[in-house]
Amino acid sequence: MSLSLFILYKAILVVIVFLVSLVIAMYSTYAERKVAAFMQDRIGPNRAGPFGLLQPVADGVKMFMKEEIIPQVSNKFLFILGPSVAMFTCCITGAVIPWSTSLHIGGHDFALQVTDINIGILYIMAVTSIGVYGIMIGGWASNNKYSLLGALRASSQMISYEVAMGLAIIALVMSTGTLSLKAIAAAQTGWHWNIFYQPVGFLIFIICAFAETNRTPFDLPESDSELIGGYHTEYSSMKLGFYLFAEYINMFISSAIMSTLYFGGYNMPFIGRLGLSPNTMAILGLVFLFAKIFFFIFFFMWVRWTIPRFRFDQLMNLGWKILIPLSIINVAVTGGVVLFFHK
Amino acid sequence: MTVYLFLILGFFAIMSALMVVFAKNPIHSILYLVLTFFAIAGEYVLLNAQFLAIVNIIVYAGAIMVLFLFVVMLLNLNKETEPHKSMLRKLIAVVAAGLLMVVLVGSLKGADAMSIKPTGQNTGYIENLGNVLFKDFLLPFEVSAILFLAAMVGAVMLGKKDIK
Amino acid sequence: MQTLTTRSKVASNKKMTLVEKLYLPAIIGGMRITLNHFFKKKVTISYPEKTREFAPVFRGQHVLKRDENGAERCTACGLCAVACPAEAITMTAAERKPGEEALYREEKYASVYEINMLRCIFCGLCEEACPKEAIFLTDRMVDTDYVRKNFIYGKDKLVDPIDKPIDVSKRETTETKEFKTHPEFAHNKLYTKSLK
């Protein structure tokens, strides 16, 4: 493959991944409202377009048209930097996710993954840990006590749950033997999904994913009843939109990661027996992965509209006193199993 | 290409490191320090040490600096509350920092004598790093782990209200 | 003590068992409930397209009915104004001139009849008080407006249009009909009979 073709293909892939995550985040806001409505025996948005499908567009236009308010006493540069960092970090996570196997077109092999770095999981951990800055900077620059409290809650929550998440991933890495997401996804053919080898790890991971994306029951950083809007109290217009959008992109990305790490990624049992061509398999893999992702996004929403918010001390207790010891035990047990059974 | 990247990243690292010192606002200092870590992580990537780069970001930028930010935000430091330092204090600080620099330069000059073994392209890869850490340097690695554990226990002891 | 509901539970401080402490069964139970609701029939009525039916006892905007010949029934006796707890009704009586028999049923009629819709509480006491079965509350909503004075409805808005009379049969339930047969209303009956 020539260099120019390679750059073109990567650029197209990057743009596609970026656009897809934006569009899915957009429609997640719509889906969220629909799911919430359905679970409360309502219909939900159904005015803009058929079934309200244009609602996200209307919301976006509204966000852009709103007045831009920057508090006079706040640090203007940091105030703008906050949502930008939040948006940036959630958008760059999609780079390491293997969306499917590769497509063979014209004698070339086009892998459906932006980049396969050999430490893909750690990259995701790093980016999520950077994501805290968006919230912290924004909360602090607002110069508002509710924002600051929200920011502090967010950062302490994310740091606490990152530890358990990292330990859950360590157990997974021990059983798979690689840090590359592509290799992890490729290893889960047939029924060899990691969920069957790491059920406890998955439980810890999904709880931490809820905490990392600031979703209910861990949405303390933006708990309206106590903190007005949490870290984005002072934000208006599209900067607020960026924060809200970043949450939905995070949800999409963490769904993708959960599907890839624990639910076989683009693999589906029995599909290998059909004897399809590699290109068809790749496209089917893409479909399966997105089906799994949509299920997890639905799961996120389902949980949100079921479980009430934790109290902050309960959150910290759960993180430090239950999840971390549990994940350490999980690591130890996994280590023992790997040592004695696999060799 | 690599040289230019190295120069750009080095420039960023040094500039933001200087800004850490010169920035009036402690929050800005911390953010510049984060930027420094990013630049250094970039240098690691250039050295093909991706694992080190990522771990640098996770641990320093992602965890330690967040805690710094946390503390500074809670203390609410700003220009007004900064204590005025006398000339004598500043002089002492300059001398101390100068001495530290002399020590650092001297030690680095000494280290120059040890020729770095030219290694393969994949030195920084996690497999090689793991092999080295858990085979050649197992004892220092485990000892440092115990050191961290001791620090953690100490922190818990300090944090406890009533120690019997 | 007798419990107020059948679903009340006595609160207790009993220790939770291990399974309860895990919370997972409780969470799964909750999620099952929300999922059930997900597939339930929705109760929303898409308003402008579909309107919800009014209850048969709904009391909305008033109407001053005409009789079978199209003459106004109201005789401006003022009983409705007296009965009105919100003092929303005012009227001015006038004498029927010869030749106006087709317009007004009785010799006396209301030349001005106003209901202040901002004061009205739609209690329906005027309807009960009316000896002539002239005023009824209908299932129409009072329209919104920006100015207060537009809420004072005169005869132009209250009197039954001749070409399309407003249906008040729902208000004439068997109870009301039975009530109107009481001796106090006998004069009305007699008068109607004597006309025929």
Characterize the structure shown.
The complex is a heterotrimer of chains A (343), B (164) and C (196). Chain A has helices spanning 3-39, 55-65, 76-92, 120-141, 145-176, 181-187, 194-197, 199-212, 224-227, 237-262, 278-304, 312-342; strands at residues 102-105, 108-111. Chain A is mainly α. The longest helix of chain A has 37 residues, at 3-39. Chain B contains six helices and no strands. Chain B has three domains: 1-81, Four Helix Bundle (Hemerythrin (Met), subunit A), CATH 1.20.120.1200; 83-112; 125-164. In chain B, helix 1 (2-22) runs antiparallel to helix 2 (26-46) and helix 2 (26-46) packs antiparallel against helix 3 (50-75). Chain C has a domain at 62-195: Alpha-Beta Plaits (2-Layer Sandwich). Chain C contains seven helices and five strands; from the N terminus they run H-H-E-H-E-E-H-E-E-H-H-H. At the A-C interface, helix 1 of A face helix 2 of C.
Quick structural overview:
The complex is a heterotrimer of chains A (343), B (164) and C (196). Chain A has 343 residues and is an all-alpha fold.
Keywords:
heterotrimer, A: 343 residues, mainly alpha, two-stranded antiparallel ribbon, 12 helices, B: 164 residues, Four Helix Bundle (Hemerythrin (Met), subunit A), 3 domains
Mean pLDDT rating of chain A? 84
- Quick check: average pLDDT of chain C? 82
Helix content of chain C: 25-40%
What is the ordering of alpha helices and beta strands of chain A? HHHEEHHHHHHHHH
| Main beta-sheet strand count, sense and barrel state of chain C | 3 strands, antiparallel
In angstroms, what is the radius of gyration of chain A? 21 Å
**Regions with little confidence, pLDDT below 50 for 5+ residues of chain C:** 190-196
Please report the total strand number of chain A as a whole number.
Answer: 2
Low-confidence stretches of chain A: none
> Which structural class do the helices and strands of chain A define?
mainly alpha
Secondary structural class of chain C: alpha+beta
Please name the CATH architecture of the domain at 62-195 in chain C. Answer: 2-Layer Sandwich
Do you know the CATH topology of the domain at 62-195 in chain C?
Answer: Alpha-Beta Plaits
Overall shape of chain C: it is: elongated
Portion in helices of chain A: 55-70%
User: Could you describe the largest sheet of chain A, including whether it forms a barrel?
Assistant: 2 strands, antiparallel
